[in-house]
Amino acid sequence: MSQKNETTLLVLSFAVTLALLAAGSWWFTSHSGKNLGTLTGSQTPTSTTSSDARVSRNQPVQERISAGERLLIPSQTTPEKQAAAEATAAGDYQGAVSNLEASLQRAQNDPEALIYLNNARIGNQTSFTIAASVPIGSDEDVAKELLRGVAQAQNEVNQAGGVQGVPLKVLIANDDDNPDVAEQVAKYLVDNSNALGVIGNFGSDVTLAAGKVYQQGQLVLISPTSTSVQLSGAGSYIFRTVPSDRFAGNALSRYMLETLKKKKAAVFFNSESNYSKSLKDVFTTDLLGNGGEVIAEFDFKGPNFNVADAVQQAIDQNAEVLMLAPNSAVLDQALQVVQVNEKRLPMVAGDSAYSPKTLQVGRGNAVDMVVAVPWHILGNPQAEFPKAANQLWGGEVNWRTAMAYDAAKALIGGIERNPSRIGVQQALSTPAFSVNGAAAPIRFLPSGDRNQPVQLVTIQAGTRTNLPYEFVPVSK
User: Closest Cα partner for 140 from 78, 74, 227?
Assistant: First the structure.
């Protein structure tokens, strides 16, 4: 059989694999531990979702936001949780507390239930309020990862007596990872005078769009996941706990030059994603500045993009490394590159490749691929955060949960210093501001960026996950 026919069959096989994954209700989430299944699998009851649980983009924005009176996450609906939402809407907070505690007995890993439980315990008491704007409608697993970090921080501060004795309430908003929807949510939260800060958004394009509204409305926004360099200096009210693409691009180019001892790269990216373009540009600039070169760029969204042709063209042009900069929307295409490459060339990638799908679909072909992430649970095994997270959720968590936890901790620290919108902004902007995060102190540069390096991880065979592969830190 010819090489071209073999490659075509490989791509067809990949498509069938993805179809089977979709049909099989794949529940595995982006975590690296033996207890992964407990985070979205066997402990999570599934049922038909109430009409409140998922809203279309043309419905009123208030139906996308909840303090407990409506359910937003379809896959984790239980009878008790539905009863709790009805009790909350009716002002029966004690009934809501009882039902939410029962629901968490069924599904320990449900962050929506824990947030609503803490809110119900507050009831009509005076409280401080923050919000979390997450992509429930477009990527429910990611939304739950982010909400686990927020819920853990809220739970900790309220169990300790609150912020200066005042409990913390959290509003959950579903923005679908859509710029237009996120702007509507932002306007609603800006108009809510109780809100002292917002954790969000997921994608860089969405954060850039919503950030303009928050900046104009003078309401602090802290993104746990948006890494585009365009967010640096986007506004005095815009911060992030995730390191900028400058750190990831630099780390990957340095790894390629210094560890792999390679100089020529072919880059795969999505021209429709600000994050993807940002990471590509930083990697390219750093590589060129240190004696390397990018011999070809391939756009996943290009009109004539063909994975088999692109990989072969990269090899024919003497590429020594494949650099993958997909966003979540084109991760499937990036994994086609992984399969077609068949380990012929070493690969490096941005944090969107840190996904269980990469392990499940890439399998042996993904072994040794290096991914730049903000945090890994094995990077600091003695830290308190991962131990507490494991106990709270019944399994290990990933970098998105850690960065969302840090975003919530930063807002709590700002509120503690000055519980007003402008007070929170001024506190976070002060050079002396510092609060303890998941693995390191949280401090912000004048640009709103976090001054923290990334963690390089690689894919290896292992026993810590439900799959025969796992992400592990790159040995220094």
Answer: 74
Q: Which residue type occupies 73? A: I
Across the strands, what pairs with 130?
170
129 φ, ψ to 5°? -125, 130
Complete domains list, the chain, with CATH: 10-18+245-373+455-473 (3.40.50.2300), 44-242+385-442 (3.40.50.2300)
> What distance in Å separates the CA atoms of residue 244 and residue 247, rounded to the nearest whole number?
6
Q: Which residue has the higher pLDDT, 458 or 17?
A: 458
Side by side, the strands of the sheet bearing 347-349 are 293-299, 264-269, 321-325, 347-349, 370-373, 455-461, 469-473
Identify residue 7 by its one-letter amino acid code: T
Q: What pLDDT score does 56 carry?
A: 57
pLDDT digits (tens, 9 = 90+) for 246-263: 999 999 999 999 999 999
CA distances in angstroms from 116 to 83, 109, 199, listed in the order given: 12, 13, 17
Residues near 316 by Cβ (< 8 Å), separated by ≥ 6? Answer: none
Confidence band, pLDDT 50/70/90 cuts, at residue 197:
very high
CB 438 within 8 A of CB 375: yes
234's tokens: 């986007």
Q: Does the pLDDT of residue 186 top 90, yes or no? A: yes
The continuous run of DSSP H or E covering 442 comes out as strand 441-442
Please state the separation of Cα 376 from the chain's center in Å. Answer: 13
**Percentage of residues in the chain with pLDDT exceeding 70?**
88
pLDDT at residue 43 in the model:
30
The SS3 call for residue 395 is coil
Tally Cβ neighbours within 10 Å of residue 34: 14
Helices vs strands, H then E, count in the chain: 16, 15
**Cα–Cα distance, 197 to 224 (Å, whole number):** 13
What's the average model confidence in pLDDT over 334-351?
Answer: 97
Predicted TM-score (pTM) of this structure: 0.87
User: Are 127 and 165 in contact, with CB atoms under 8 Å apart?
Assistant: no
Give dist(CA 116, CA 165) in Å, integer: 20
Overall residue count recorded for the chain in this entry: 476
Integer Cα distance of 280 and 284 in angstroms: 6
Q: Distance between CA 65 and CA 222 in Å, rounded?
A: 18
pLDDT in tens, 49-75: 333 334 456 778 999 999 999 999 988
